[in-house]
């Protein structure tokens, strides 16, 4: 954990500025840290087909994976909502698989922050241990 929660939030906020969300206008930014302290950022990218939209959290994790990283630590998610917004169900599964039971830092643009453990967001998760 080489970065403060505030640094991760600031990176997620920067990524959010590039969100491609012309259909929902709901811009999301995420920043995930790798074990060696690198930060990978992501924003949501929407498609005119709607269903092909990818969330900010997964974009951030995919970017790390494409650099050869497969184990991550904490992830920050920033949305311009009154209450910080938790990750969707699909992203919870992916965060669990690649980050494990990490603190998920939820923040809005007005300094409101909440930290929730992944095991609280996704209890009794399915993962690779069931495949062995
Ligand atoms: N979205 C995310 O980026 N992350 C989430 O965890 C929730 C939803 C995006 C997808 C879509 O572009 C927009 O927010 C509205 O659902």
Global outline: globular
Task: List each distinct ligand once.
Answer: tetrahydrodeoxyuridine
Please compute the radius of gyration using only Cα atoms: 14 Å
How many strands? Answer: 5
Uncertain stretches of 5 or more adjacent residues: none
Q: Any idea how many domains? A: 1
Q: What is the straight-line distance between the termini?
A: 30 Å
Mean pLDDT: 97
Structural class: alpha+beta
CATH homologous superfamily title: Cytidine Deaminase, domain 2
Helix amount: 25-40%
Task: Supply the number of helical segments.
Answer: 4
The fold-level CATH name is Cytidine Deaminase, domain 2
- CATH class (first level) name: Alpha Beta
Strand order of the largest sheet: 2-1-3-4-5
- Report the biggest beta sheet as strand number plus sense, adding barrel if it closes: 5 strands, mixed
Q: What is the second-level CATH architecture?
A: 3-Layer(aba) Sandwich
Detailed description of the structure:
It is a single chain. By secondary structure, this protein is α+β, with helices and mostly antiparallel strands. It has a single domain (5-125), classed as Cytidine Deaminase, domain 2, CATH 3.40.140. 29% of the residues lie in helices and 23% in strands. The chain is built from 4 helices and 5 strands. It has helices spanning 5-16, 56-66, 89-99, 118-121, and strands at 28-34, 39-43, 72-79, 103-107, 113-117. A 5-stranded mixed beta sheet has the order 2-1-3-4-5. A hairpin with a 4-residue loop joins strand 1 (28-34) and strand 2 (39-43). The termini are far apart. The mean pLDDT is 97. The chain binds tetrahydrodeoxyuridine (THU). The site of tetrahydrodeoxyuridine (THU) has 13 residues, from helix 2.
């Amino acid at each position: 954990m080489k970065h403060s929660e505030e640094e991760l939030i600031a990176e997620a906020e920067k990524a959010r500025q590039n969100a491609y969300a012309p259909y929902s206008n709901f811009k999301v930014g995420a920043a995930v840290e790798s074990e060696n302290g690198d930060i990978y950022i992501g924003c949501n990218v929407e498609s005119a087909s709607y269903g092909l939209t990818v969330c900010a959290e997964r974009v951030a994790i995919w970017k790390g994976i494409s650099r050869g990283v497969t184990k991550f630590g904490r992830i920050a998610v920033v949305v311009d909502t009154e209450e910080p917004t938790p990750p969707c169900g699909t992203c919870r599964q992916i965060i669990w698989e690649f980050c494990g039971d990490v603190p998920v830092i939820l923040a809005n643009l007005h300094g409101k922050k909440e930290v929730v453990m992944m095991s609280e967001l996704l209890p009794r998760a399915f993962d690779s241990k069931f495949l062995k």
